[in-house]
């Protein structure tokens, strides 16, 4: 080893390792054309959804812009298609393309909010259970076991139904998005908590944690500054995969009629409303929202699968 290498500071060594890992991840990304294509497609779907008010022909949430005379117009490439309804209209005269893009915004925002809150709850409970152990660990993990023993969608349905019934009728539509987020969080935080708890249980016995305790470093600082960074890789991968699952759960709840209201349709609501017209000839009302939902979930899952492989040191 050269004197220059010996003179390297710990921060420089850490910087070299981070840069090396970033370059490895980037090379792994470039070697996966399917992942690159999925990333580009997902970016396109998200950007077009959030910029939709700038170019779509109508606001599907505004009843004043809907005209029943324009109901069930087929897509523009069919004989009876009309401009500007590129993908046709539904039974209320709502432009299907506008409804899909506005609905995608709702589904994406709910998915992001649900994953973010699930991360906060799961990481907090996992750190507490793994670091302190004892009664705290037992109570939190048994609560997680109970939730895991029930199918996720049933937990979400139960929570959504109970909260909606507890709200006044005037607030049910206004708070529909918040209820969906709460339902998804309560059914998905356990996975993060168990992952963090397992890692925290191992890290708390290591020398640097024991030394920090001897120096009377506060437990909160040890958990957030030392243990949490070592759990971020599996948590990040799980969050990416669960983002697609959160979107799918929201769509399922909305399809069952306990999600977003018809006046503020998400992709699941659009699929539910269009399902009645699938065999009546107006197939476009349900087919295009299903395609949008499928593209969102598939692209997110492909990126999550790549991250799981790229961040796994055993596969490099």
Automatic annotation (TrEMBL):
Q: Does the keyword S-adenosyl-L-methionine apply?
A: no
Q: Where in the cell is it found?
A: Cell membrane
Where does the sequence pass through the membrane? 36-56, 106-131, 143-162, 174-192, 227-248, 283-307
The Gene Ontology biological process terms listed for this entry are:
transmembrane transport
Q: Does the keyword Membrane apply?
A: yes
What cellular component terms from Gene Ontology apply here?
plasma membrane
How is this protein positioned relative to the membrane? Multi-pass membrane protein
Annotated ABC transmembrane type-1 domain residues:
104-304
Query: Domain of life of the organism in this record?
Result: Bacteria
The UniProt keyword set, sorted, is: Cell membrane, Membrane, Transmembrane, Transmembrane helix, Transport
Q: What family does this chain come from, according to its entry?
A: Belongs to the binding-protein-dependent transport system permease family.
Protein name, as recorded: ABC transporter permease
